[in-house]
Amino acid sequence: MAVRELRYLGDPVLTTPADPVTHFDRKLQALIDDLMDTVLLPGRAGLAAPQIGVGLRVFSYNVGGLHGYVVNPQIVELSEEVQEGPEGCLSVPELWFPTRRAAQATVKGVDAKNKPISVTGTKELARCLQHETDHLDGKLYLDRLEADVRKEAMRKARESQWFWRGDNGQ
Question: pTM of the predicted model, to two decimals?
Answer without folding.
Answer: 0.93
